[in-house]
Design brief:
75 residues; alpha/beta; 3-stranded parallel beta sheet; 3 strands; 3 helices
Length: 75
């Protein structure tokens, strides 16, 4: 899941916390993107996203981070 930190109705970190609390979704990697810089460590500890990418970023950076989170393709 690629998730923006700032959303219209909910903070992206709060949504990440909810995703990780759902047993059906907890193993799905979450990458948070944000123009606000890295959040405080306590927020990251609660939300536990697998990745964080600061805006602006290049498409190749996003692709590389997604590839890292998904791991190598199956043989």
């Amino acid at each position: 899941i690629v998730l923006d930190r700032r959303l219209p109705d909910i903070d992206g970190l709060e949504l990440c916390i909810r995703i990780k609390a759902d047993p059906r979704l907890r193993l799905v990697p979450v990458l948070i993107v944000s123009a606000y810089g890295t959040p405080p460590a306590d927020f990251l500890e609660k939300a536990k996203p697998e990745g964080w990418l600061a805006k602006p970023f290049r498409p190749k950076q996003l692709a590389a981070e997604i590839s890292r989170l998904l791991g190598p393709p199956p043989a």
